[in-house]
C-alpha cells in the first residue's frame, strides 16, 4: 500500500466494510459474497490480470435478472462512499503533503515577494477582487437532496473518528452512526423517480447555500483576512464582498419550456424567504450571545436606553425577519391576506444596526466578542444580501427577435426578421432613445411572445440586487443585444441590467470581436452601459461543434480580442465563463484554468458557472468550499498581478495549424463518417439517457434531430459512460502529430514549458486519457453494436492509443499524470468499482434492447449504473 494514501485507503476500506454489513443485513450473505467476488476480480483485472478480466465478464453476464439491481446498487454506493472518503481526505488533518499542497495564498504571497510586486499593487488587486460563482442545474447531478444531507453527516462522522483522544464508547457511537447513515442511504432511492421541476432545482441550490456556503463564506473571509494581515499588514475591509453567488435555477429558460415567468417569480420569492430564514437563525443566536450591558452612546440611543442594549436592537431585527418570512410565505402561497407589516427590503436594515453593535463592542474592549458570530453575520450580509443568490435569466436569441417581428408586423412596419442587420440596429436604437411606449395596449401577442414579455415584466418588478445578468444564448449580432435592452425598457425596467451575449459556436466565437466593436460604436449604447460590458464565453457547444482543441483556441482568441476592444473603448469587461465539469465542456482544475487565460482577461473579475455534480464536489461541504474559494481567489490575484506571457507569434501560428487540423479531424468523424451516428447510438446509452430523470430540461433542443440537435451535456455524458470520452480528445492528438511531422517538436516542447494555455490543454488531455478505458469501450462495441460498426470503434480506439503516445512524447513523460500523482491515485482508487458497473451497464443495455416490453427492474438497474459511473467519472457533463 502506498503510505502517502494510507489514511484515505483506510477510510475507503472502513466505509466499504460497513456497506458490506448493510448489504448482508438487507440481502443475505450470498449476495454479499457475490459482490465481494466481483470486487476482487475487478481489482485483479485492473492490475492487469487478463484471466480474471474474463472471469469477471463471465460472472456478470451470468447474473440472474433479480440480482442485477442489488449488485449495481452495491457498486454505485461503493463509489459514492469512495468519493466521500476522497473529498474528506482533502480537508482531513491527516492529509499528506503530496495531496494537500502548501496553502495557495501563502504560495501566492511568496511569489509576489520574489517578483518584487509592491504592497500597494497587491492591496489594490485585493480590493478589486471580484469572484461570482453562478450555480447552475445542468443535469448530470444525480444525487438527491436527501442523499446530499446524508453525505454531509457521513463526513461529520469521519471527522469525529479521526480524533485520537476518542474514548472507546465515543468511537463505538460514531461508528454506529456511520453504519446507520450508510444503511439509510442503501434503503433510499439512489436516483429520482420523477424528473425534477425547475423549483426542485432551485431548492437544491438553496440547500447548497444553507448546508455549506453559509458557513464557508465567513470562514474563507476570516482566513483571507488573516493572510492579508500576515503578509501585507492590512485587514480586509468589513464590508468587503470578494465572493458573491448567482444562480440559473429557475431563470434558465433556454430550451426549457418548464421555466415560465410564474416559476421565475416564485423562485425569486423563495430565495428571499430562505435568506430571511437563515438570517433569522443567526439573529436568534446573537440574541442569546450578546447579553452585554456596556455600550457606546450610539447603541444606547438605538436601544432606547434598554438595560441589555445589544439584545434590544437584535430583538427588533428578529421581529423584522419573522415578519419578512410571514409576508413572503403568504405571497408564495398566493394568499389573499398578505400581512401589512414592515419587511426586509434592503441590506442596510440589517447592516446598520449590527454594524453599530460591532463598533460599540470594539470601543468597549469586547473585540473578541465582536469578531465572533457578529462578524460572520456582517460578512454574510455583504455576500448574500437580501436575496441570498442573484438570479440570472437566460433565453435564446431568436425568442427575442420573434417578439419584435410579431410586433412590427402588427404595427404595419414590415417583418423585423427579414430586415438587414443595419436596419434592425437603426430601428432598435431609435426606439431605445424614444420616450414614447412602443407596445400598443390593444395588441394580443402569441403565447410564446407573451411569455417573453411576462418574463421581462417579472424582472422589471424586482429590485436590481435580486438579478444577476440577462444571458442571450446563441447570440450572433449586435441587434441580439439591443433587442433585449428594448424589451426590458418596454416592460418598465428602470435600472441598467447586464445584458450578456453568449458566444458559443466556433463561428460565433470568431465573430465576437466584431459584434462588441459594433455595439461600442453606438453612442446610445455606450452611454447606457456606463462603461461596463459582460460577455459570456461558451465552452460546451463550441467543443461539440469543433472539438476541444479548435474550441479552446477560439475561446482564447475571442477573450483576447474582447479584452482589447473594451480596453480601447475605455470599458470594463467582465468575461463570464460557461464552463462545465468535463473537459469537453471546458472543465479543468480551477487554478490551472484561470492562469492559462489571456493576459488582462481577469481584470474585471471572474464570473463562472458551477454546474451539477461539480457544485457538490467543490462547494458541497463547508471546508471543501473554503478550499475552493481560496483557490479561486489566489488564482485571480496571481493572474492579475503576475499575468501569463502573451503568446509569441510562432506559438500562435502553431495553434492556428493545430486548430484547423484538429477541427477537420474531429468533424470528419462526427459529421463525415456514414456510420458515426448509428455507432454513437448503439455503443453508448445515449437513447436510454433520455429516460433518466436528471434535470428539468429536455435532452434535445429538437426531439426529431440527430447528434447536432443534442445538448452538449448528454453528448458528453453518453461518451463518458462507455469510457471512450470521445468529444474530450478527438482531433487533438492527430493535430499534434501533424505539427511534429512538420518538424516543430522543439517548438511544441517550448510551448509546453513556457505557455500556461498550452500546458494546461495537455494536462487536461492527460486527465481525459487516464479516465478512458480501451478494453471497456471495446466490450461495449462487442456486446452492443452490429459487427458492421466494429471497424469504426477499432479505428477510434487505435487513434486514442496513438494520441496518448504523442502527448506523452511532447511532455517528455513516461506515463500519464506524472505531475498529478494525487489525481492519478484518485482515478485508480475508483476504477475497481467503475469497471464492474461499466460491464453491468453493457449487459443491461444488451438485455433491455432485446426485450419487446419494458422491464422495470432492469430499467432501474440500468439507471443505477448510469448514476454510479457518473459518480465514478466525477466530471461527466
Brief synopsis:
This protein has 877 residues and is mainly α.
Describe the structure.
Helices cover 64% and strands 6% of the residues. With 877 residues, the protein is mainly α. Strands 1-2-3-4-5-6-7-8 form an eight-stranded parallel barrel, surrounded by eight helices. Helix 23 links the parallel strand 7 (572-578) and strand 8 (606-611). The chain is globular. The chain starts with 5 loop residues before the first helix and ends with a helix. The model is unreliable at 581-588 (pLDDT under 50). The active site is at residues 138, 544.
Topology diagram in text:
Layout: H1 6-27, H2 29-46, H3 50-61, H4 65-89, H5 104-114, H6 119-128, E1 131-136, H7 145-161, H8 168-186, H9 198-232, E2 243-247, H10 261-289, H11 297-302, H12 309-332, H13 348-363, H14 367-384, E3 390-396, H15 397-410, H16 421-433, H17 447-461, E4 467-473, H18 478-490, E5 498-503, H19 506-520, H20 523-528, E6 532-538, H21 540-546, H22 548-569, E7 572-578, H23 590-595, E8 606-611, H24 612-619, H25 622-641, H26 649-670, H27 676-683, H28 686-689, H29 712-721, H30 732-741, H31 745-754, H32 756-771, H33 774-784, H34 790-811, H35 821-850, H36 856-873
Parallel strand pairs: 1-2, 1-8, 2-3, 3-4, 4-5, 5-6, 6-7, 7-8
Family: Belongs to the PEPCase type 1 family.
GO molecular function, one term: phosphoenolpyruvate carboxylase activity
Cofactor: Mg(2+)
Amino acid at each position: 500500500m502506498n503510505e502517502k494514501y494510507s489514511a484515505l485507503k483506510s477510510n475507503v476500506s472502513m466505509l466499504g466494510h460497513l456497506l458490506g454489513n448493510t448489504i448482508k443485513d438487507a440481502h443475505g450473505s450470498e449476495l454479499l459474497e457475490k459482490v465481494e467476488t466481483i470486487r476482487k476480480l475487478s481489482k485483479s483485472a485492473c492490475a492487469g490480470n487478463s484471466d480474471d478480466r474474463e472471469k469477471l465478464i463471465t460472472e456478470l453476464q451470468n447474473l440472474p435478472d433479480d440480482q442485477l439491481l442489488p449488485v449495481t446498487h452495491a457498486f454505485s454506493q461503493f463509489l459514492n462512499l469512495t468519493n466521500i472518503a476522497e473529498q474528506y481526505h482533502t480537508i482531513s488533518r491527516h492529509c499528506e503533503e503530496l495531496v494537500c499542497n502548501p496553502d495557495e495564498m501563502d504560495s501566492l504571497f511568496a511569489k509576489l515577494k520574489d517578483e518584487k510586486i509592491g504592497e500597494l499593487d497587491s492591496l489594490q488587486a485585493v480590493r478589486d477582487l471580484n469572484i461570482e460563482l453562478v450555480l447552475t442545474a445542468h443535469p448530470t447531478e444525480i444525487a438527491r437532496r436527501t442523499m446530499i444531507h446524508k453525505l454531509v453527516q457521513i463526513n461529520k462522522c469521519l471527522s469525529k473518528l479521526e480524533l485520537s483522544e476518542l474514548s472507546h464508547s465515543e468511537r463505538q457511537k460514531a461508528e454506529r452512526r456511520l453504519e446507520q447513515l450508510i444503511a439509510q442511504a442503501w434503503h433510499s432511492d439512489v436516483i429520482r423517480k420523477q424528473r425534477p421541476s425547475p423549483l426542485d432545482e432551485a431548492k437544491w441550490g438553496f440547500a447548497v447555500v444553507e448546508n455549506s456556503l453559509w458557513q464557508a463564506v465567513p470562514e474563507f473571509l476570516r482566513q483571507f483576512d488573516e493572510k492579508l494581515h500576515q503578509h501585507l499588514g492590512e485587514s480586509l475591509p468589513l464590508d468587503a464582498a470578494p465572493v458573491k453567488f448567482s444562480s440559473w435555477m429557475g431563470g434558465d429558460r433556454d430550451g426549457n419550456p418548464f421555466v415560465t415567468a410564474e416559476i421565475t417569480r416564485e423562485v425569486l420569492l423563495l430565495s428571499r424567504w430562505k435568506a430571511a430564514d437563515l438570517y433569522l437563525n443567526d439573529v436568534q443566536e446573537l440574541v442569546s450571545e450578546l447579553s452585554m450591558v456596556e455600550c457606546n452612546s450610539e447603541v444606547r440611543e438605538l436601544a432606547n436606553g434598554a438595560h441589555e442594549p445589544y439584545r434590544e436592537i437584535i430583538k427588533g431585527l428578529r421581529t423584522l425577519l419573522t415578519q419578512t418570512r410571514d409576508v413572503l410565505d403568504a405571497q408564495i402561497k398566493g394568499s389573499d391576506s398578505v400581512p401589512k407589516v414592515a419587511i426586509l427590503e434592503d441590506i442596510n436594515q440589517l447592516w446598520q444596526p449590527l454594524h453599530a453593535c460591532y463598533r460599540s463592542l470594539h470601543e468597549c474592549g469586547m473585540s473578541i466578542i465582536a469578531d465572533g458570530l457578529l462578524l460572520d453575520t456582517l460578512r454574510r450580509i455583504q455576500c448574500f444580501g437580501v436575496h441570498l443568490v442573484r438570479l440570472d435569466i437566460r433565453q435564446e436569441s431568436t425568442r427575442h427577435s420573434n417578439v419584435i417581428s410579431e410586433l412590427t408586423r402588427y404595427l404595419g412596419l414590415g417583418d423585423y426578421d427579414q430586415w438587414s442587420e443595419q436596419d434592425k440596429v437603426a430601428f432598435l436604437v431609435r426606439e431605445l432613445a424614444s420616450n414614447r411606449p412602443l407596445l400598443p395596449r390593444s395588441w394580443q401577442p402569441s403565447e410564446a411572445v407573451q411569455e417573453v414579455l411576462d418574463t421581462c415584466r417579472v424582472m422589471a418588478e424586482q429590485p436590481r440586487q435580486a438579478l444577476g445578468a440577462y444571458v442571450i444564448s446563441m447570440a450572433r449580432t449586435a441587434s441580439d443585444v439591443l433587442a433585449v435592452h428594448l424589451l426590458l425598457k418596454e416592460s418598465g425596467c428602470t435600472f441598467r441590467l447586464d445584458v450578456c451575449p453568449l458566444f458559443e459556436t466556433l463561428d460565433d466565437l470568431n465573430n465576437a470581436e466584431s459584434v462588441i466593436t459594433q455595439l461600442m460604436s453606438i453612442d446610445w449604447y455606450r452611454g447606457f452601459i456606463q462603461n461596463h460590458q459582460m460577455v459570456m464565453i461558451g465552452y460546451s457547444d463550441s467543443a461539440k461543434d469543433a472539438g476541444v482543441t479548435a474550441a479552446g483556441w477560439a475561446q482564447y482568441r475571442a477573450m483576447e480580442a474582447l479584452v482589447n476592444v473594451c480596453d480601447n473603448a475605455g470599458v470594463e469587461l467582465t468575461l463570464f465563463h460557461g464552463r462545465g465539469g468535463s473537459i469537453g465542456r471546458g472543465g479543468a482544475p480551477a487554478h490551472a484554468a484561470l492562469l492559462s487565460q489571456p493576459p488582462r482577461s481577469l481584470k474585471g473579475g471572474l464570473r463562472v458557472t458551477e454546474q451539477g455534480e461539480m457544485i457538490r464536489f467543490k462547494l458541497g461541504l463547508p471546508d471543501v468550499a473554503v478550499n475552493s474559494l481560496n483557490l479561486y481567489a489566489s488564482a485571480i490575484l496571481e493572474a492579475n498581478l503576475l499575468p501569463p506571457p502573451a503568446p509569441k507569434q510562432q506559438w500562435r501560428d502553431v495553434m492556428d495549424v493545430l486548430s484547423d487540423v484538429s477541427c477537420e479531424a474531429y468533424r470528419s468523424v462526427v459529421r463525415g463518417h456514414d456510420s458515426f451516428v448509428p455507432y454513437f447510438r448503439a455503443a453508448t446509452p445515449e437513447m436510454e439517457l433520455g429516460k433518466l430523470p436528471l434535470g428539468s430540461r429536455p435532452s434535445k433542443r429538437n426531439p426529431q434531430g440527430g447528434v447536432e440537435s443534442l445538448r452538449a451535456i448528454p453528448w458528453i455524458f453518453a461518451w463518458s459512460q462507455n469510457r471512450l470520452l470521445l468529444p474530450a480528445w478527438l482531433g487533438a492528438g492527430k493535430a499534434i502529430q501533424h505539427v511534429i511531422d512538420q518538424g516543430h517538436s522543439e517548438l511544441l516542447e517550448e510551448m509546453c514549458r513556457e505557455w500556461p494555455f498550452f500546458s494546461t490543454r495537455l494536462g487536461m488531455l492527460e486527465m481525459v486519457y487516464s479516465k478512458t478505458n480501451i478494453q471497456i469501450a471495446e466490450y461495449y462495441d462487442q456486446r452492443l453494436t452490429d459487427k458492421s460498426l466494429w471497424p469504426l470503434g477499432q479505428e477510434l480506439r487505435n487513434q486514442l492509443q496513438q494520441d496518448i503516445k504523442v502527448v506523452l512524447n511532447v511532455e517528455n513523460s513516461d506515463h500519464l499524470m506524472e505531475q498529478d500523482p494525487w489525481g492519478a491515485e484518485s482515478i485508480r482508487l475508483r476504477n475497481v468499482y467503475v469497471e464492474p458497473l461499466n460491464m453491468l451497464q453493457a449487459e443491461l443495455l444488451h438485455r433491455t434492447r432485446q426485450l419487446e416490453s419494458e422491464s422495470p427492474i432492469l430499467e432501474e438497474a440500468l439507471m443505477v449504473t448510469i448514476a454510479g459511473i457518473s459518480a465514478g467519472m466525477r466530471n461527466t457533463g
